[in-house]
Amino acid sequence: MADIFEYKCPCCGGAVNFDATAQKMKCPYCDTEFDPNAFIKKDKRLEEQEPDNFKWDEKAGQEWDDNEEGQMNVFVCQSCAGEIVADENTAATECPYCGNPVVLSGRLSGTLKPDYVIPFKHTKEQAKDELKRYVSSKKFAPKKFKQENRLEEIKGIYVPFWLFDSDTDAAVSYEATTVRTWSDSKYNYTETSFFDVYRAGSMSFVNIPCDGSSQMPDDLMESIEPFDFSEAVDFQTAYLAGYLADKYDVTMEDSIERANNRVRTSSEQVLRGTIDYPYHSVIAKSSSVQITNGKAKYALYPVWILNTDHNGKKYTFAMNGQSGKLIGDLPVDGKKLFALFAGLSVGLAVIIYFIAAFTGLL
């Protein structure tokens, strides 16, 4: 059976055929013509492009020694099933995620010891002050929430992170466009030109963070990044005194796919930065990522969790315990939002009126 080759027009998506008269590839739907060599070179490059290859050394963390395990207790939340590690002086506490009481389940065992820890640099009082500043700076937060915002709970917690290092070779094909517009006395014209852009290079990634707690939302943790790993120290249980530590329930193996996605996305962004021609759009269409010397570390990062109450609803904020960056969910004042849209609508109506009057439509 003969092979059937089909090429898609980048302009409209229609099937492109070879036009014997023009000696070019031509789209029968939008009449756009292409140099056949462009398709041939693209096909050859795609054929030579190797599939993604992500290989990680799946070893991270250390074993606890008997003395260290004996100094740590594990508390379990009966509501959300979160597991919290604390020193032996912590008799009882509340779950930093849902606020319910947690119960002591026993001594720490059956888990890895972190390789590194970044100690807290910001205090509880600094976290409270930053929350007040953050809330007061938000224009659409309800006035009542700003004035009567009640801090229900604040906890300093070390969040488990898997940190991935790798050397990476990446190749990415981008589809780029330029747009030109003009008009005459009858019509407005738009011309969109499509370009196939290829970039390849080698780069290294260090300490790509993936949090190892299912209780801690990934987007919340990514929002308070970055953490400065240069301030990390070898782990010692003394750093946990007075704080809680989340016991990881997402293993390094289960975090690899997320690390792969972050490597792939970052590689595409790095190579995208080498395209200096002023295209109007540049979109990654295909990529090949090869990882070597992939390895992981296990670390604890400092986070303040602040829970507030407003009209019977809980709002949770997280603050980077190292840098002080704070992020959280806020209620929105519907009246302020409505006033904004009403103002924009009136302004738009005035602009349309003057355009219509100027062009003689009124």
Number of helices: 7
- The residue fraction in helices comes out at 10-25%
Which stretches of 5+ consecutive residues score pLDDT under 50? 336-341, 356-362
Beta-strand portion reads: 35-45%
The tally of strands reads 19
Taken in chain order, the helices and strands follow as EEEEHEEHEEEEEEHHEEHEEHEEEH
Our measurement of the CA-to-CA distance between the termini, rounded to an integer number of angstroms, reads 67 Å
**What is the average per-residue confidence, as pLDDT, rounded to a whole number?**
78
Total separate domains:
3
Radius of gyration from the alpha-carbon trace, in angstroms: 28 Å
Largest sheet: 13 strands, mixed
Structural class, from helix and strand content?
Answer: alpha+beta
Shape: elongated
Task: Describe this protein's structure.
The chain is of the alpha+beta class and about 350 residues long. It has 3 domains: about 50 residues; about 240 residues, no CATH class; about 30 residues. Strands 5, 7, 8, 9, 10, 12, 13, 14, 15, 16, 17, 18 and 19 form a 13-stranded mixed β-sheet that branches. A 4-stranded antiparallel β-sheet has the order 1-2-3-4. The protein is elongated. The chain starts with 6 loop residues before the first strand and ends with a helix. The C terminus is likely disordered.
